[in-house]
Amino acid sequence: MVLFHEESTGRTVRFDCSDLPVSEPVRNWLVQRLAERAGARSGVKRAKSFRTGYQVVRDFARSLADCEPSPGHPSDITAERIRAFKSQYEDPQTRRTCVARLRIALRGCSELPEPARRELFQTRLPVKQASVQITAYSEAEWQKIMTALRRDVRLCRDRIRGGMRLLEQFRAGELKAGSAEAELGGLLDIFATSGDLPRARDGEGTAEVKRHGGVVPVMRRLSLSQQEAGAFALLLAALTGENLGTVAKWPAVYRRTDGGTGSSSVALVEQRKPRRGPESEHRVAAVEDLPASLSAVLEQASSDEPLFHSPLRVYDLLLELTAPARWITGSTGAFVNRRTSNRGGQGSCWSDEIRVERWARSREFPPVTRDGENGLPGIDVRRIRQTALEIRRRPVSHSRNMHDHYLRRSDTVREQSQKVVAEALEEQVAKARTAADVAVLSPRLLSLTARGPEAAAAEARLAPEVLKSMACGERDTGVVACRDHRESPHAPIGEACPASFLNDCLNCANARALPHQLPVQTALHDRLAALRPNLDPQTWQARYALPLARLQSILDHYSAAEQTAARAAVTARHAALIDTLLSGRSDLR
Question: Which residues in 188-346 belong to E strands, given as ranges?
Answer without folding.
Answer: 255-256, 266-272, 282-288, 337-338
